[in-house]
Design goal:
It is a single chain. 40% of the residues lie in helices and 21% in strands. By secondary structure, the chain is α/β, with parallel strands linked by helices. The chain has a 7-stranded mixed sheet. Strand 4, helix 7 and strand 5 form a beta-alpha-beta unit. The longest helix has 21 residues. The protein binds S-adenosylmethionine (SAM).
Amino acid sequence: MTGQDVQPRLAPFDVSRETSEKLALLESELRRWQAIKNLVGPGTLDRIWERHILDSLQLLACAPEARLWLDLGSGAGFPGLVLAIAGQERGLEVHLVESNSRKCAFLRHIARLTGAKAVVHEARLETVVPDFVGKADVVSARALAPLATLLGWTAPLLKAGTIGLFPKGRDAEAELTEARKSWKFAVEVLPSRTDSEARILRISSIESLS
Ligand SMILES: C[S@@+](CC[C@H](N)C(=O)[O-])C[C@H]1O[C@@H](n2cnc3c(N)ncnc32)[C@H](O)[C@@H]1O
């Protein structure tokens, strides 16, 4: 699919032609790498735009002022790499944390091709998070762990004022109930623009209950 073909799909997201071309490049490179590196679930390949690219892109509007973004367990770049590409024109810098070296190679490759401000940390998130306390405006993580676990990992960031953005599927309410057993936090439950059953949890403060 060319940048021109994807323009109607991207219309609700208000991105420039240059950004849409870079996102189309991400899609075509993902398909090329997938054949040998198996970067995303094979079942999601027929809907890369809805399942991965647009699902990631919608997070940009949840934190319009963000300048420094930390994405944990980025995989093949969702949402972090998409946000780095789409946020390039507003000066957004995204740090992508991923422990799998094959996925990190893909992330670096796309960052180079697109010129996106994406810094790849090939590491376990537990070792990287402390460096961003008091610095990151936003922390995100998609399909990485249940909310209670995510809050445990990111609490030092959230306590220091970082906003947490966590896309969740139809189990969002159950994950919130479970997380409330250990944490007190402020949350907005936002609808997803790509999946009527999914939610985006926007968490802005946190306290441990123990
Ligand atoms: C299910 S995938 C989700 C990838 C991507 N966020 C998405 O939604 O498509 C989870 C990713 O997190 C990475 N991961 C898991 N635990 C990690 C950790 N402790 N530190 C860094 N990366 C981790 C895995 O290698 C994998 O690529």
